[in-house]
Amino acid sequence: MEKLRMGIIGVGGIAQGRHIPTFMNLADKVVIEAISDVNEETAKMVAEKFGIKKVYSHYAEMFEEIDAVTICTPNKFHAEITIAALEAGIHVFCEKPMAMTPDECERMISASITSGKQLAIAYHYRFMKESAAAKHLVMENEIGKPIVARAKGMRRRKVPGWGVFTNKELQGGGSLIDYGCHLLDLSLWLLGNPKPVEVMGTSYNELSKIPGQVNQWGSFDHETFEVDDHVTAYIKFEGGASMLFETSWSANVKGDEESVSISGIDGGIDLFPFHMNQMKHGMLMNTEADWVPGEDDPSMPQALNFINSCLGLEELVVKPEQAMQVSQIIDAIYRSSETGASIRL
Prior knowledge:
The protein is of the alpha/beta class. It contains 9 helices and 15 strands.
């Protein structure tokens, strides 16, 4: 079997820390042919660090030499580069979130359909072994019809003080679009991706505008901070399901917390940690797994799923239409916060 020829566009932290090392650990299936970044010096440094032979100043210059591309740029450029790659006949693996707006997502999906090429979005929380176990139990009807989801992604004083994470023009938002999107996507997937019909949300950034910040992840300018650092939302779905959601980069809480809880008619599942709650045999029973199969690092199964989908060996786990749902909800939360009213979808 021939190897998939991969290109990397944008060689910042996520490319160097996750995607490039992961693809290199899958050298029997994929080879990184080339990289591109707007900062040519950084691109050359990364190429030398990882032994990648070709560096291009503009991403389109590599299209004739690759079969697939991984996009790790700021969010503003996801749609533009994705569409250009798909129109050139290149499979696309794009970092989350899918795009800045639902309209951009729709254009990306249209380009994927027209080209016949794969479009995957890097929502890696689905590939955590606990997430896969929870999905299996939902599909096996262990909890019955899912009706309520509770998703929480909270960090204490951890605004990313590097890159462009606090730049609204380049990223489109802050804690919600960067971090909370993972918990939204995972919850939607476990619910079965029902259609959202109404969203009520509130976003805050007052805390990060206060001088004299204590921040564990680098430093940032409180005077120019312009994105959300704390978001809450209530989401209603077609069929009656609902979701309670909260995320923050910098909340005044005791400690970091990630949790997803799905309550069904016959039982419930909690992540993280993973356990199932049921009423059986006249008793209230909580079940914990002594061992859950799968990889500790979700990067590997995520990369394998994309590679195999490009080779026609399996379906994408994260389908672009599902990733667009996440962007629709994010957009609705921001609009709801601006208007002070719920948004009907």
